[in-house]
Amino acid sequence: MAHRRRDTKIQKKVNVNKNLLTNYFEKENPPPERNSRFLKQQQQQQQATVATVATTATAATATTTTTTTKAATKKSERE
Hints:
Number of strands: 0
Radius of gyration: 32 Å
Largest sheet: none
Structural class: mainly alpha
Order of helices and strands: HH
Region (Disordered): 56-79
Number of helices: 2
């Protein structure tokens, strides 16, 4: 029984040391998902994509409006 208790204590120490090492290295080289610079860059790309889509939609609406206005003007000129 004594050996078993000693083994679990040793295993706990090993686990703690692994966690400490992992935490240290992640601070030095964080994985991309946790890196704040990576997250900011990803958010900027998403915002740029949304802005592009919004601009495209606005341009399409403006073109449609212009075409409709021209057609209405031609109709009124004929009458």
